[in-house]
Write a structure and sequence with these properties.
It is a single chain. This protein has six helices and nine strands. It is an alpha+beta fold and 207 residues long. β4 and β5 form a beta hairpin. α3 packs across α4. The longest helix has 14 residues.
Length: 207
C-alpha cells in the first residue's frame, strides 16, 4: 500500500467513526458507508449531497488535493484591528490567499462596510473560496462545525428565522446585508428555502 493510500484509508476510517468532516470536490460529507460492491457512499447529515465512488477514484481525488480534511489545513487567522493598516493572513497549504490592505479597502468601499466588517469579510472570503461551496447552508454548517464564530464575531452569529408560522435560532447565520454580499462574492445559492431572517445577534455581542 502506498503512503497516499495509507493516509486515505486512515482518513476514511476517521470519517466512519464520525471524527472528521471531509471536503470532497468542494462539498462537505460527515458520514460514509461501504457497500457490498466495495464502493463508498458519502453523505452529510445536514444536506442532500451524496457521492458514491470507488477507492481508486477517491485516491486520485486525494492525490489532487480535492479530498481532504478541512480542519487539518492549518488555517491561521489574525484578529482584526481598528486600523486600515492591519493585514490579516490566512494560510492553508497554498490554497488560501493572503488578506491584504488593498483587498480589505476594496471590500469596504464596494459594499460600504465598517473596517471591522470588511476585515472579517475578506478573511472569510479568502478562507472559504477554496472550499467551493454551492449553497449558503453549506457555508453556515462549516462555520458552526469548525467553531469559526470567534474568527468572524462581527459578521456572523445567531439569526432568528421564521417561515411565517414558526420561529427558531440558526447558529452560524448572517444579517441580511452581509448574507447578500457573501452570496454574491462566493456565488452561493440559498437552496430554495422558504424561511427568512427576522433578527440577528452577532457572536461578538454575546461575549
Amino acid at each position: 500500500m502506498t503512503l497516499n493510500m495509507n493516509q486515505l484509508t486512515k482518513l476514511l476510517a476517521s470519517l466512519e467513526q464520525q471524527k472528521v468532516t471531509l471536503n470532497i470536490r468542494g462539498l462537505l460529507y460527515n458520514k460514509v458507508d461501504k457497500t457490498p460492491k466495495n464502493t463508498y457512499i458519502f453523505t452529510h447529515s445536514d444536506s442532500l449531497d451524496r457521492l458514491e465512488a470507488q477507492l481508486s477514484f477517491l485516491d486520485k481525488l486525494f492525490q489532487d488535493d480535492r479530498l481532504f480534511d478541512p480542519s487539518s489545513k492549518n488555517v491561521r487567522n489574525n484578529s482584526y484591528q481598528s486600523n486600515i493598516n492591519f493585514i490579516g493572513r490566512l494560510a492553508s497549504k497554498s490554497k488560501i490567499n493572503i488578506v491584504t490592505n488593498s483587498a480589505i479597502t476594496t471590500i469596504q468601499t464596494k459594499h460600504k462596510l465598517s473596517i471591522e466588517e470588511a476585515t472579517e469579510m475578506e478573511a472569510l472570503l479568502c478562507q472559504m473560496r477554496p472550499m467551493n461551496f454551492r449553497t449558503s447552508k453549506q457555508l453556515s454548517n462549516y462555520i458552526v462545525q469548525h467553531k469559526l464564530g470567534n474568527k468572524y464575531p462581527t459578521i456572523s452569529g445567531i439569526a432568528r428565522m421564521t417561515n411565517g408560522y414558526d420561529e427558531w435560532n440558526f447558529d452560524g447565520g448572517f444579517p441580511p446585508e452581509i448574507y447578500k454580499i457573501i452570496c454574491r462574492e462566493l456565488q452561493l445559492s440559498n437552496q430554495g428555502t422558504n424561511s427568512w431572517i427576522v433578527g440577528f445577534s452577532s457572536f461578538g455581542s454575546m461575549k
